[in-house]
Design goal:
The structure is a homodimer. The first copy, chain A, is an alpha/beta fold. The first copy, chain A, is built from 9 helices and 16 strands.
Amino acid sequence: MVLQKRFVLEKHFDGMPKKSDLKIIEEKLPPIKDGEILIQALYLSVDPYMRPYSRRTLKKGDMMIGEQVAKVIESKNTDYPIGTIVTCSPGWCTHSISDGTDVRKVKDFPENLPYSLALGSLGMTGMTAYFGLTEILKPKAGETLFVSGAAGAVGGVVGQLGKIFGCRVVGSAGSEKKIKYLKEIGFDDAFNYKSTIDPQKTIKDMCPDGIHMYFDNVGGTITNAALMNMTECGRIAMCGAISGYNAKSQSTIVHPPIVGRQLKIEGFIVYRWTDRFPEGFEKLKEYISQGKLTYKEHVTEGFDNMFKAFCELFTGANFGKAIVKV
Amino acid sequence: MVLQKRFVLEKHFDGMPKKSDLKIIEEKLPPIKDGEILIQALYLSVDPYMRPYSRRTLKKGDMMIGEQVAKVIESKNTDYPIGTIVTCSPGWCTHSISDGTDVRKVKDFPENLPYSLALGSLGMTGMTAYFGLTEILKPKAGETLFVSGAAGAVGGVVGQLGKIFGCRVVGSAGSEKKIKYLKEIGFDDAFNYKSTIDPQKTIKDMCPDGIHMYFDNVGGTITNAALMNMTECGRIAMCGAISGYNAKSQSTIVHPPIVGRQLKIEGFIVYRWTDRFPEGFEKLKEYISQGKLTYKEHVTEGFDNMFKAFCELFTGANFGKAIVKV
C-alpha cells in the first residue's frame, strides 16, 4: 500500500493564489490491477497556464492539474516494467496509478541531462517555444523577433531559437540579473520591464527596424507597447498572458494597430502539435547537444513546496523553468 | 479655365469631426499640358477609413483624401479621350488634372447599373468585402459567419457573400429598419446593437454553434462580445473599427479568448490585393447579375454636402454605401 499525497482545489483562485485555495490530502492507493502500473513522481512542473486552466477545468476537491516525470515502481503491465521513466499529467501528486494509456515513455533521452528537462526544454515548454515560433511566426533570417517574458521557461528557448534562425532577438524580463542572463545566452538586447518608464520607446530604440515577430508570454502593458512597434503585416504568436492571470478585470490589448498595420495575431496551445512532438524533441536535443541551446532551471526541493514554487511564477521570483523535485 | 472646389484640412479631427475642421476652397486650375486630362467628379465616396487616415497622412491645408468616379472633360492624352469614365483618388474635389497614371478606366461596366457602384459593391468596398472574406476568413459551407456593421457598405456585401458560400450569417446593425433589411437580403439573423442589453448573450443565442468567422467593421463592445463567442481556432478579419474612430482614448479588445480559444486575428487593408481587383470585379458583377448580391446606396446630392455625408457614417444615419452625387 502506497500513500499518495496530492493537492486538491479548496477554492478557485481569486487574484493572487492563496495557500488556503489548495489543500494537501494523503490517501492510501488501492493495489494495482492487471495492466496497471504504480508510478512515483520524480519532478513536477509548475507553469503559469495552471492559473487560468484550473478555473476552467476543476471543481472543489479535484486534484490540481499538472505534468510530472515519474518512475514506475510497481508494474502489472509488461509495456512498462519497474524502473521505466515516463511523463504524465495526473496532477499535483506524489504517486498515481495508470493503465499505461495516459503516460509516455521518456525515450532516447541524452544521458548527460537531467530528466527534469522532459518537463522543460525537452518537454512541454520546449515544444511550446519550438512550434509556436516555427509554425506561427515562421521566422526569416534578418527579421527582428521580440520576446516578452524572455527569461521564462518558454521565452528563453524562443529567443535562442530566434538566434539559431538568424534573427535579431530582443527580450523583456523582470530583473537586472535576468537581463544580464539574456545577453549571455545570445539576445541582442533586452530590458527590465519593471524599471523601464516608457516601454514603447525602449522597444523602439532596441528594434530600430520595428518588430517583425512578437512572441508574447505576458500580455498587458508590454504587449501593448510591442503592438505599437510592429512592422506592417507583423506576426504575433500569443502564447500566454501571465500579467493578467491574477487580475480582477479582464485584460485587453490595443486595437488600432491591428487594422492600421495589418497585423496577424494567433493564439495557440501547444497540444495542437502533439503528434509532432517527437520531431520537436529531436530538434531541441540536437540544438542542446551542439551547445546552441542552453537551459536554465529553477528547482524547488520538496513536494510540499509545490504551492510556493507556483506562486513564484507570478512574482517573478523564479529564474528559468520552474521545477519541483520530490 | 475650370474652377476646382475642394475640401482642405483646417484642423485634425478631435472626437466627432466638426465642420470647422475642413474648409472649402475654390481655385482656378491651369490649362492642361500634353499627356494630361481634365476630369470632373460625378460621384464621390465617403468612408469611415478617412477619419483615422486623414490624421496619419494629411497636414493643414492638404486636400481631404478620397475616391471618386469622374469623367474626362478635356484631353491631351489619346488613352483617355473626352467622355472616358474613370475612378481615381485625387481627394474631395470637383475637378482635377491627371497625367493618366493615377486613374483607372471603368471598363466592362454593366449597362443597367449606376457608375456610383464603382465606388461601392463593384469598387473599393466590394473588393474589401470579397478579398477580406475569401482570403482572410476562407469560409466553408456550414460555418457561422458573424458580421458587425452589417448594414454598412462592406458589411452588407460580406453577409450576402457568406450566404453564397453556404454559411449561416448573423449580423449587427444600428436600427430596426436596418435589421429588417438584413433579413430581407438573406441574413439568417441580426440584432440592433443600440437596443441590445447583453450583446454577448444575444450573439450566443443567434450563433448556437459559436462564431467560426467574424468579419469586424466596428471594434469596441460588439467585437468583445463576438470574441467571447468564437469557436476554438475561430478566424477574425479586422477590417475597421468605426466605434473607436472618434473616441478620445485608444480602443481595446479583450485578450483572454485569443490565447484560450487559439483565435486567429488578421487586420487588413484592401490595397494588398490591388492586382487582383479585376478578378474581384468579375465575381461581384456575376453575383449581382445573378441576383444573388443586391446593393444599397445612400446618395447625398451636392458636393458641398460631402462633410454632412461623412459625419452621417459615424452617427449611423447612412443606410448602405454612402455616395455623394455632384
